[in-house]
Amino acid sequence: MTVPDRVRIHPSPLAGDVLVPGDKSLSHRALMVPALCGGPVAVAGLAAGADVLATAAALRALGVRVTLERDGIDLAGEVEGDLGGPGPGADGGPVAVDCGNSGTSLRLLAGLAAGAGRAVRLDGDASLRRRPVDRVAAPLRAAGVVVEARDDRLPPLVVRPAGRPRAVSWDSPVASAQVKSAVLLCALGADAPSVVRAPAPSRDHTERLLRHAGIAVDGGPTPDGREEVTIAPGRPRLDHVEVARDPSAAAFWHVAAACGAGRVVTPDLCLNEGRTGAIDALRAMGADVRVTAAGDRTGEPAGTVTVAPGSLTGAVVAGTTVVRALDELPVLALAGAMSDGGLEVRDAAELRHKESDRIRGVVALLAAVGMRADERPDGFLVPGGQRPGGGRVVTDGDHRIAMTAALAGALGTAPVEVAGFATVASSYPGFLADLERLGGRVEVLDG
């Protein structure tokens, strides 16, 4: 699906039902873990964005058979491979892998390759090359893996396993699901159980899928608010993986409903507690949010989230809620501006290491559409009582900024032009179609 690079979004009421893409985080893992199983694994519900396709292409480069076809808005197909057996990079030089714009692909594949004994050179586009990899490199080196990076902290990232990785007991300085997942995937090939600790819990998608695949994974949040996870080495066993839909994508429509004039229904969302921070933040701001559970999708809870307009008050998002809502903070900033009391975000310094410096990007976005926000070292403060007034936003290659800017046009008093909107193809290529389906007015400016 081709996504235009310049669009203008006009003010319009948004309401209705919308089926968002499969969850991006789950989709990466739904491809990687089956690549270790040794037999065919059916996969369904995968996100069709460029980031997930980058993971599929990377696995193919490593000799894994990945066949995917369109299934509505999703991808479905089969993965068959044995990364622990002979293949490209097993005995020779590193296999060149292009991760595009996907930081998740790069960081998790580093751990996957290290545990499977595969030498890889992980690279990507200009945006990815600005994102640090030292937090992943450090635990892999502790496991005895040779790791090289530009300036010792930036991609390209070269991983050269030196035999079977050692078990590690690793204390991560940050609560990061990507760092934790890289360690866990590497530990599958280790010589004994490994432990990874963090100052706070982070998304546990990798742990859930590995448990579902028969791997012994224990632990989680600790009584003192930290996290400690222990994993035993082993080969995952799966016959199918079904991916629930992306709550981070749905958050844009939840904010639209909370700030607008109509109800929005988003079915079949992943309701993992580590992903519901934005829902909790909207509730704290006074939004009318209703969640209906609907069973399990390969170890992940799923259900329908319905949001209706309400009188939004102010809120503070900090601590563990930030970890659970990190990707949604840009669009929550828009909700905060349109609330009565505003929004303060703390403890979110990790936003500076996303596709762009998202703290600076959020403040610049709001300023571009006539609203005020104050940048903080670890977050931002957005005064309430504001409404977007139209303007022009440059995305700096960040898909979350692009979609938030488009929503500002729909919810504001004048059109918003978004330059660099094509970056949305990495995560939500059908965003404009869904915006129009809910009543939005889109003007394509390309050409």
Main β-sheet description:
4 strands, mixed
Radius of gyration: 21 Å
Tell the overall outline.
globular
Strand-pairing-aware structural class? alpha/beta
Order of the strands making up the biggest sheet: 22-23-1-24
Overall residue-averaged pLDDT value? 94
Low-confidence spans: pLDDT under 50, at least 5 residues?
Answer: none
Query: How many strand units?
Result: 24
End-to-end Cα distance, whole Å, is 18 Å
The total of helices stands at 13
Question: β content, as a range?
Answer: 25-35%
Helix % is: 25-40%
Give a brief description.
The chain is α/β, with parallel strands linked by helices and about 450 residues long. The chain is built from 13 helices and 24 strands.
3D structure, described in words:
The chain has 447 residues and is α/β, with parallel strands linked by helices. Helices cover 29% and strands 27% of the residues. It contains 13 helices and 24 strands. The strands form 6 sheets. A 4-stranded mixed beta sheet has the order 22-23-1-24. Helix 4 runs parallel beside helix 5 and helix 7 (247-259) runs parallel beside helix 10 (329-338). 57% of the residues are buried. The model has no long low-confidence stretch (mean pLDDT 94).
Topology:
Layout: E1 6-10, E2 16-17, H1 24-32, E3 41-46, H2 50-61, E4 65-71, E5 74-80, E6 95-98, H3 103-116, E7 120-123, H4 134-142, E8 146-150, E9 154-160, E10 169-171, H5 177-187, E11 194-198, H6 205-212, E12 217-221, E13 227-231, E14 240-242, H7 247-259, E15 264-270, H8 277-284, E16 288-297, E17 300-308, E18 315-317, H9 320-324, H10 329-338, E19 343-345, H11 358-368, E20 374-376, E21 379-382, E22 391-394, H12 399-411, E23 416-419, H13 431-437, E24 441-444
Helix pairs in contact: 1-2, 2-3, 3-5, 4-5, 7-10
